[in-house]
Every structure is written in structure tokens, then in C-alpha cells.
Amino acid sequence: MFDAAALNMRDDFARDLVRHEAEQGRVWRRQVLNTTVGNATGALIAGTDGNDAGYAAKARAALLTDGLGQGLSGEALDKQTNFAFGRRVVEPVVTARLSQGDVTGAKTFFYTHRDGMAGDDADILDRRLAEAGQAWNTKTIVDDLWQRLGPKSFDDPIDMDAIENDLVVRHGGDERALMRERDEVFHRILGFTQARDDTHAGYANFLINKVKGGASPSQIATLPQFLALPKDQQQQLIDWHREQMTDRLAGFAPDQNLDRMVRQFAAYHDLSGNDALKQMSVPRVQALEPVLGEDLTKQALANKQASPSLDATDFAALARSIGVDPNPAPSDTLTKAQLGVLRSAADKAIATSGTALTPQQQRETALGAAQTAISGHPLFKLPPEVQRVLDITPQDILGPTTSALSPERWSPPPEHAPQPTRGPGAPAAQPVRPSPAPPKPSLPSPSEDPVIRQADEKAKQLGKVAEGWARATDLAKDAAKSAGKWIIRRAPVIGTVAGLAAPNEIGSEVSTYLFGRDASDTNLRLSGRSDDLSRVVQIRRQGLFGPTWETVAKTEPDKRGHGSYRIIDPAAFANKTGLDWDTIVLQSTGDKPEDKVGFGVAVNNDEERAILHDGIANRDSATNIQRRIDRARQVSGGTTSESKQSSGSQAVVVSAEGRIGDKIFRDVNQTARSNADAAQPTLIAGHISAKKLKPGKSFPNGNMATAHAEIGVIHQAFEAGSTQGQDMTLTVKGRAVCGYCRGDIAAAAHYAGLKSLTIYEEKTGHVLYWEPGMRSVKEKKSQ
Amino acid sequence: MTTYSLSWCIGVGDDADGGKKRSPAWSDIEQKLSDAWKRSGTVTLDVSDGPDIGPQSLQMQTENAQAVIMLGVDDGAEYEVRTYSEGLHAHDVEILGNRWSGKTVCSDLNIVSRAFREFLDTGDVSGDLLD
Fold first, then answer.
1. What is the ipTM of this complex?
2. In this structure, are residues A759 and A768 in contact, taking their beta carbons and an 8 Å threshold?
3. Which chain B residues are closer than 8 Å to A30 by Cβ?
4. Which residue in A239, A526, A770, B115 is a FRET match for A281, CA 20 to 30 A apart?
């Protein structure tokens, strides 16, 4: 259709594009965004030859033809054509030009073609262009201002008075423009200070490594990196260097986590303390992520769209009640950060309360959230709530009659707990608890200790042991959620945690640990994203600029390549931490942060230990190792973790049946599933966790609690080792394959190594298929 | 010109009625949406003859006048799903045996109809509706 026109175009791409558009009859946003605007083709699209003979007009003609082909005419034809033209052609091109900063070009294109758009769409686009024009003006003004008055180097102070005066003088009475310009200046200052701080941190790292390498104080003092540091950091480094020369302080690398957290919360406070957030566009708020961090950026975006939280007066009262000065000096970053923590907690609690709150309810909700947030937050004192969980002792669980017990007395006795080996130059083992642990007395084994035996007997009589530890686990989880922190607790010789394994007898040879989220007040943490295959374990050290974290062990993925991880250097880990990792396999148990609770595999005897070591050697997951141990216990008549698994209670709505050769695998919808460990990651857990989650949404198919029946079937077949290189058929009964599963089934088929997959939707008669390379299952064309 | 394929499953479990139709008229789609809304079920509109990149499929799953709307989009690198996100439920909602985030659950058939109409007319659904 457009061949003749295409021959006259000025570059190959233009011809390809027009041919494509002629075939498809549409403009795809991504293609326009990525490749067309700004080059010769952009002009073709815009129809700048004055005769409106450009691509836009031709695309409109094609859309008109579409409508005629559908039997439309008159007003209906005009309506559909205008609608499609606006959304397929005008809006993508305008968006693309705006994204390249070409506001003038975007306006030209829009005003040329707005009459051919649906009226509502044109109005919306008009408003967008007006906002973009304001943003462009703001940028131009602040560019000029920043060039004249902004800092020229990291050593330059920021003259806020001069900047403010300049803004006020030039704003000419336009208060909104002034607000936007202030916002832009604020944004640039944040970016500048972060870049400066990061650079200084890099210099400090460099210098510390020089010191470790044997550089003398005079050598250090002449290095340009040292000279570039602020005076106070220079002095800190000198002091530390002096100390280093006299003290055998183990090596460390500064970690800026705490500093970064301070900056992020302080920035959040600054952002929330006035109307800046409301004046900012969504992309602008999104662009603050390097300054605010991911979580606070999401929250800022949510706040921008939600109803206002506490007003300034109420928030000041809240801060005072917590003991934080609501009006800190501009240089008091820590107090601003603390206010940011309070503000963040209050905002989140009010936003998630689910109902419209009265002002009084808002105040109460915010206060409760703030109190919870500070307990355990590293920017405040040692959290009482976390401490309560960390300090929980058997008497809390078993009742007041066992008050003679102390946590230490419940720790594994030396002859039962495998001791780590220590190299000659190794640093002292770090205590597991956050506060320095007193030296442990030499204890008799639990069964010989009359106090423990008495407690044991009492616990057994009351049947409270398992219940008690389940409660301890719940408490720790709750605290982890509310405090937003990692919690580590040594669960002394009484079974496993996280509800995934059966409690063991008191005195069995087990050490287990419970992890929560974050790490600031504890001595041990896991690090890394769930889809990151190089997760590390770190211990806490006191560093030059505050607490630092040193990597002591790396993990590697299980045989599925995701989901569970184990320590690959247990000796080094034990050496540094004093923890016995030989009996621990770690696994994250869910997609949400609060679910990421590590759990241990408990072993009671040599047979079980052999299973554990075999599983580790074969890179098996913690879940599977625990299952093998459970099966061994079943044979010997012991208890298993199976009783802890969830049991489905709802009717079967959807079922799926997969066949590979003569093997059959079946599964059902989420709420009817009863034969699977809900926390077990599916074979595509890594794929799911790599997706970018939008606020308020969640993805199915990451674990067996959220898996739909189709994914459950492929997962089972994969677990059974039946999928590699095979053709599979899948019959879905009860409903159609959902939108998410269209993509996730393709991912699962890929991960499982299937050769092909054919899906029969029983009720609709639809046949979908997948072959390697496809990103989703699709309808067979022959239907 | 892009052509579409409509498939539906009205009702739940063994009692459900299902079927499919190529190149459906809007009235066909509207009727199935209405039926599913009343009796529970799924309605899916697939691009059956069109480009491999871009929106591929729009689906509603509904039960008890609550629905999730999913637009499957192949962007050339990933298969993404855009959903409704203005739901008012604070907690997950169970629809056809699976739990869905309350924010993604739509309680207004008019909104569902609007999404399907846009998809049929333009091959896409606006980001304001499904993001």
C-alpha cells in the first residue's frame, strides 16, 4: 500500500517502518520510543512537509480503512478512527518526543493532529504538554542558576541563601513556578551530596586498603584521596591509623549501609515536611530512588497519590512524644533521619489502615506505628521489642516455675555442639546475640542438669514444648515484621524454627537460628537478592565510620539454580562466627520480605547427618533434605515435619493434569491444594522474584502457596526428573489458563527443559502451545 | 488487520459451559462478560492474527461480581501482565480458587467492559485502566 511512498524515503529504517506499518496497520509505542523520533523518520511521521502527507496521515488512512472493513460508517467510523489515531499515533509520538526532551517538537506534532483525536484524549495530552512545558522551563532556569551558584567541586559549600535569593528575584510573582524551582534545586542538592558522600566513602576505602597494605602515615597524608576528604574524616582516618598500628584490629572494609540509611531517611523527612512531594511529578519522585532507596521511593509515590497523612502540628507532637526534636538544625542529619523513620512509619500505617480515619484515629495509628518502628531501628536505641524476643527464655514459654533457667543454660553444651576450628590468626568469634554475651559456664548435658530435666519433664507433661517454640517463632517473626530488622536467635537445643520441621527432643544435637529482615543490631546476616546466585553471609564488625559487615561465607544455589542456598565454606564461616554451620542449610521461604526466614535442617543422629551431608554434596535444597530426613524418621517411627504442612480446606475449582509418556501429574487450585509444602519455591521462583512488582500487586506461582494448578503440575514433573527433552500435554479443567500463567507456564516449560507443551482447556476448547523460545503460551493458529 | 478470538467458560467446575468464537462482534463479548459476571467464570479475548509483539490477550476471571482483569503483553523481551490496580479490598480476594491481591480486584462490570472494548477497538488498553 505504501510501497511507492516508501521508495522516496530517506533512510532504510523509514522504509522498513512504513512497510511494517502498512502490514500491521498500527504504530507500536515501543518502536516509536526506541527508534523513530529524533531522526529523519520522526519528520516523516510528523508530516512536516506542510501537506500533511507524512506518516501520521497515512496511518490515519489505514485506521480509517480498518473501520470501513469492520462495516463502520458515519459518526461511528469517525469516533473509532479518532480514538485509535489518538492513542496509536499521536500519544506515542508525543510521549517519545517528551522523553527525549523535545517539548517543542511534541507540541508541534500534537497541535498539528489534535483535531483528529478523540476530545477527551486530546484534553489529557494537552494537560500533559502544559506540565511538560513547565518542567522544561524549571529545568532551564535551574540549569542556569546551578551553573552560576552551584558548587563547582565537592569541597565547595552550597550557598543556599544566594540560591534562594536568585530564585525569589526571578520568579516574578509566580508562586507555583517558584515551588517547582525550589523542588528542582532540592533534587540537585540531594544528588550532589550523595555523589560527594559516595566519593568520599570510596576514598576512605582506598586509603584503608593502603593502610592495610603497609602505607605509613606520611605516605597516606600526601595522597590526593586523603587531601580530598573533609577535615573531620581525615582526622578519623589518622586516629584509626594510629590505633591500627598499635592494635591488632582485624581487617575490615567500611560499609556505608548505616550512613546510607541516615541519608535516605533524612531525605524522606525533608521531602515530606513540606509540599515538595505534591508539586513533584511521578517521574520526578521515581528519579529520587538513588537518594531515597527503593522502599522509601515507593512509599513517597504512594503518599503522593494518597490522602494527606499527619499535618505538621500533629507530626511535631508525635515526634516530641517519642523524644525526637521535631525542628532539628539543618546540619543535624541524624535527627532528621529519625524524623524520617517516624514519618515513614506513620505514613505507612495510615495508608494501609484500609479505612478513612478520623484525625484522632490518625494520631493514634501514627503513634502506635512510630513506637513500633523505633523499637529495633538502628537509628534509635536498642529495640526493646527485639530485645524481648532475643531474650525470650524457656521460662517465658514454660511458665514461672522454671524461672531458674537462663538462656545460656539452654545453649548446646560443649560436648554436644560441634565446635568450630579456629586458625592461628583468626579473629575472635563474634557473639550470636547482639549484646556481648557473658562467658558461658561449663555445663552438664541437658539430661544431666536437674533444672533442665525438671523443665523438660514439666514441658512434656504439659505438652508445651512444640507449642512454646512455635510461639517463640511467631514472636520473632512478628518482631521482624514490625521492626523491619533481621533478628537472629540461637534456639537452644530444642528443635527447629519457622514451623517447617518437627520439634526435637530437648538435648538433641541441634543448633538452629532464626533470621528476620535487615541486620543492623545483630551480628550475622544474609545478603543478596533472591535471584542473586552469589548470596553471602556477613558478620558485623565495628568499623571506622560505624558498624561494618564483613563477608565470611558465600552461598551457592541448589540444583534448580534458585530458591535455596547453602554455605559453601562452613569451616571459614564457623571460624569467623563461632556458629556450627555444618548442620544448617538455609532457604528463603517466601517471596515477601517478611517471609524470608531461614530455617535449619535438624539432625538427631548419624544416619540423619549422613542424609544431610549427602544432600549438601548433591546441592539439594533444604526442603528436600528435610523431607529425606523425615522419611527416615517415618521408617524408624519418629515424628516428621509433614504434620506441619498446610492442609487445603476448600473445594477443587480448577484441576490440571499433565502427561509425559505414561506418567501423569495432577494439581489443583491454590486454596484446594493439600499435598504440598506451601513454602516450597516452585521451579520458576527465581523467574517470579525477578519480575518488577508494582505497589499493591503480587505475583502468583513463586511458591506452592501461590502456584496455580498448571505450574504445580510442571513443578511436580520437574521434581520427578521427568521433563528434560520431553513433550508434555496439560489438560486444564474448570476455567481457562489465567493471564499470568500464559507467561509463567512458558517460563516453567523452559526451566524444566521440555521439548514442547500442549495445553487443552477442557471447557473452552482452546488449545494453547509452547515451544522453546516462546515467551508465552499461545493459541494454535489452526483452531 | 488484527483479528481476535473469544473464548469463555461460564460457571464453575463441572457445571461450567464453555466455547470459543473467531472474529467476535462486540455484542458477543459483551454478552459473555455479562453472563460470566452473573454466574462466575472466565472470558478471554486473544489476538489470533496479529503481531507477536505488543498486547496479546485480555482476560477476565470473575466470581461473585468480583473480577481480575489481566492484559498479557509481549514487549519483545518479556511477557508482562498488566492488571487493574484501583481495587478497594484491603486483603486478598479468592476468585475461582486462587487468591488475588485486593488492589487488583475490580467490582465494576462497566470497567471490565471498557477494557475489553478498548482492546477490541485499538489492540491495547490504556495504562490508566490496566497498569
1. 0.97
2. yes
3. 53-54, 75-76
4. B115
